[in-house]
Amino acid sequence: MLIQKATLHELEPLAELFDLYRLFYKQESNLEGAKQFLKERISNDESVAFIALDGDQPLGFVQLYPSFSSVSMKRSWVLNDLYVKKEARGRGVGEKLMKTAIEFVKDKKAKGLFLETAEDNYNAQRLYEKLGFEKESNYFYYYSI
């Protein structure tokens, strides 16, 4: 298995995974929309994605978005997307993708890597905690349109 930073050369397999990820979250399939969205993010340096490949078969991906901390005056990263194909689960793909993301953030000397997950996504929670992530209990998060 190879984990590499996704470029426009990996747009097709990355879009396939991204579409499956969106289906997992109960969105309608839109492969062309996925390609366009990812092409814009990559072309404009608005995100960093890593893709796991077994030969030419895409297994999973992780996507990070840059942010900043005004208090620490440092960049931070938001892990927005992590997905592993059903048939590749249980093989350590998610953990390897996460470790790659963590090393990327460390190499950039960022403040940290932030993520959120669904309350009932127990598999992801176990992985995050295994890798040293701590559940935040000091802040409330709000959302508005």
UniProtKB/TrEMBL annotation:
<dbReference type="InterPro" id="IPR050832">
    <property type="entry name" value="Bact_Acetyltransf"/>
</dbReference>
<dbReference type="InterPro" id="IPR016181">
    <property type="entry name" value="Acyl_CoA_acyltransferase"/>
</dbReference>
<protein>
    <submittedName>
        <fullName>GNAT family N-acetyltransferase</fullName>
    </submittedName>
</protein>
<keyword id="KW-0808">Transferase</keyword>
<dbReference type="GO" id="GO:0016747">
    <property type="term" value="F:acyltransferase activity, transferring groups other than amino-acyl groups"/>
</dbReference>
<feature type="domain" description="N-acetyltransferase">
    <location>
        <begin position="1"/>
        <end position="145"/>
    </location>
</feature>
<keyword id="KW-0012">Acyltransferase</keyword>
<dbReference type="Pfam" id="PF00583">
    <property type="entry name" value="Acetyltransf_1"/>
</dbReference>
<dbReference type="InterPro" id="IPR000182">
    <property type="entry name" value="GNAT_dom"/>
</dbReference>
